[in-house]
Prior knowledge:
Blueprint: H1 2-18, H2 23-44, H3 60-73, H4 75-89, H5 93-103, H6 118-156, H7 163-179, H8 184-210, H9 226-243, E1 250-256, E2 261-265, E3 271-283, H10 285-290, E4 292-302, E5 314-326, H11 340-360, H12 362-368, H13 373-379, H14 383-407, H15 416-434, H16 441-444, H17 449-472, H18 474-482, H19 484-500
Antiparallel strand pairs: 1-3, 2-3, 3-4, 4-5
Helix pairs in contact: 2-4, 2-6, 4-5, 4-6, 5-6, 6-7, 6-8, 7-8, 11-14, 11-15, 11-19, 14-15, 15-18, 15-19
Amino acid sequence: xxxxxITLCISIIAVSTFAAPTEEEAINDxxxxxxxxxxxxxxxxxxxxxxxxxxxxxxxxxxxxALNDVEKNDIPQIQKLLEKCRTEYGKTPELxxxxxxxxxxxxxxxxxxxxENFQDLYSILDKWISNIxxxxxxxxxxxxxxxxxxQDRMNSFATQxxxxxxxxxxxxxxxxxxxxxxxxxxxxxxxxxAEKFKAAKAAINKKIDDAKWPGHYKNFAGPGSAxxxxxxxxxxxxxxxxxxxxxKDRTFAVAVKGDxxxxxxxxxxxxxxxxxxxxxxxxxxxxxxxxxxxxFSLTILTTEGRGVKKSPPWTxxxxxxxxxxxxxxxxxxxxxxxxFFGGIFWLGLAFGNIIAGLLAAAPLLKSxxxxxxxxxxxxxxxxxxxxxxxxxxxxxxxxxAILQLFILRFVIFSNIIPQLSAIAVGLFLGKEILMRKPxxxxxxxxxxADAVKKAEEAAENATAKAQELLRKYEDKINLLEKYQxxxxxxxxxxxxxxxxxxxWPLI
Length: 507
């Protein structure tokens, strides 16, 4: 009796466990499969198709967003549904279809069940979920391949070692790891690319810092002078830049690279156009801000015609190699302080600040460094004169910078700090001379009495106006005495920095 009861219980449990689903249950599961397909099609139909493991969406951000949403909110439920179908209808799609057909009265026009076969819906969903995983892995590999091509380009060409390309490289690798966090190649490349870029950038920056302006070809045979031809070529290039819509380049220096060359011949072999090899330095606003320019190797062309002369007007250019360098290293560039007078003012600002600074800081330095007493005794009598000289150097240097700003359209405030410090310490040291009435002995020696009188009046008027301006700000100038020692020390430091680090912005 006991054995019979146990057998009966097992039979009841087995029947309830392995009993075929009812028609209503089968139809509901069938509809659930159809609904799941509609959901995936609406959310990722344009990202990963149901027929291939490929991501067809070109926007990586959109693709990742859509796939992450589906993987989080839909795929877990769909996988549970597929598992239920395997448990209740059969291990294969064919067995599932057979089971469903045995419990559901099929009528394709009734609307009671979906119009696609049960097994087809199951197969599409099962394959689609598999495609998503494979597509993400494949996309990750594609992104790494693209990153490698960018890296190869950067390794091969110095001009490709840009922040823009490095950012692109990093973006590709970051997205590769988002699509497949287990992509070891992406991880390794991400670790090494930053160091490679840093090293390459340092090498490029050193090359830019070390680059020198070639200057004119020393053995230029002519005809024409290198200076006049370079000036003419620069004017043509600047006008060409202005004529090109959206062009932000600004040519600011030209040097003759070599002798004239034949650019074109006629059928008789006679030259009908000449070319002049030149170097042209130019910058755009971003480069100018960084103090860097591009130097082009160009050949600027004359007009065409039989018997054409080796001279302007120019008509076109051929473009050759290009390299980068510091704007301040271009000889003759506005504000670089090159040339004889530029060098004089540059040295004047440096040593003028140092000497005037030592005089202003005398009370402090005498107590801290008694060994300077002898030197101070020699230069102190000339403190007023030194002050006037350094004031003149500072004012003239600043005036030149302002004139270049408006005339040459080149922003040059690389010397602004030593210019202002020279003006400040010059006013302080030279105030006594500046406020003194000038001697007019030389004017008095003129033979014409009227001329003497007019000259004296003109000199006195000019002096009066200058002194009136100084008196207007005398209280502010007198304030400098309060900070005499600090101003002196600052001027010495600024002078030294200007002497050794004059290429730095503002210094």
